[in-house]
Amino acid sequence: MKSKHFSRALVALGFVLCSFAGVVAAQPTDPLPSWNDGKVKQAIITFVNKTTKSGSPDFVPREQRIATFDNDGTLWAEKPVYFQLLYAIDKVRQQAPRHPEWKAKEPFASILKGDSRKALAGGKPALMQLLAATHTGMSGDEFRQSVKQWLATARHPETHKHYTEMVYQPMLELLNYLRSNGYKTFIVSGGGIDFLRAFAEKTYGIPPEQVVGSSLKAKFELRDGKPVIIKLPEVNLIDDKAGKPVGIYQHIGRRPVFAAGNSDGDFEMLLWTTSGPGPRFGLLLHHTDAGREWAYDKDSPVGRLDQALSAAPRHGWTVIDMKKDWKTIFPWGNRSSAPTQ
User: Which listed residue, 15, 74, 179, 227, has the most CB atoms within 10 A of its CB?
Assistant: First the structure.
């Protein structure tokens, strides 16, 4: 009799365990594990669910699922200054032996003296001189290789990490989550399109044809009998502020239904995206974490955020509070935990 009761107990226990295992197995995997549970995370998941579920009144056909992301300060860090500018400064120092005249010519003289702030005090003209000297006169392939070599060796001045390690883990998860639900992800950045295309696919999973950025004019020519594209010192598009919707129109040809940015330079892209018909999502990253990253907004010379933050409630944009909404910042941890040298 005891044996029979024991057998029944084992069967019952097995049933309970199998049922529990089934419940555990049925639990959905968290698509955004580096995001704290809260309104921001739930808003993103709700939007993706309702726009991708067949039969939903907010269903968005796959071909219309376009998501655009700013890069500097949105997908990777942007302090102390934009990383592309640091590349240009390093290239000036590298090329200086071939240009002795730079010792007496701004903005190069100040850069060679280690005073980058003074070098950039000349504003846009100084910046254009810097870009012309370091980004033009070479083929597109030569420039791409130069950027790749720099990224492989250069280190962030504070964290001493490679710049491609300064990406935001929560945003990498968001990119993957959107793509797994049929969204096509694009970079729409004020940074140089050729600079971004050198690393975007490996770093973000975003191929070159899905990168929109500021660009210089170019021309086709034969060099040593071989066809090449040569970068010219003439502006083609400044993909910032009002230039972002123009870049989207010219390169993508569809209005996004999802857009993410972090500064006033993204205001027009967010406005263009969320003003369209049907379900729309505007996402704004507010840098609030001085301990794990940097805290800045309206008073910052890099990634200034004032107009867009004030307009967010009016336009229904979702604002990420980095300190509150993200469990971790970088794939390797946080700035405060980075090794010092």
Answer: 74
> In whole angstroms, what is the distance from residue 76 CA to residue 167 CA?
4
- In terms of residue numbers, what domain contains 189? 30-79+161-337
Instruction: Report yes or no on 1 lying in a domain.
Output: no
* Nearest Cα to Cα of residue 290 among 79, 9, 3: 79
Q: Which of 147, 153, 144, 161 is nearest to 88 (CA)?
A: 147
The CATH code of the domain that includes 50 is 3.40.50.1000
- At 175, which helix (H) or strand (E)? helix 169-180
Residue 211 lies in a domain: yes
Give the integer Cα–Cα distance in Å for 199 and 211. 11
Q: What is the pTM of this model?
A: 0.89
Does the pLDDT at position 14 exceed 90?
A: no
In a domain, 15, yes or no: no
Report pLDDT for 27. Answer: 54
Mean model confidence pLDDT for the chain: 91
Query: Which two tokens mark 2?
Result: 């005891």
Q: Is residue 329 part of a domain?
A: yes
Q: What is the pLDDT averaged over residues 138-143?
A: 96
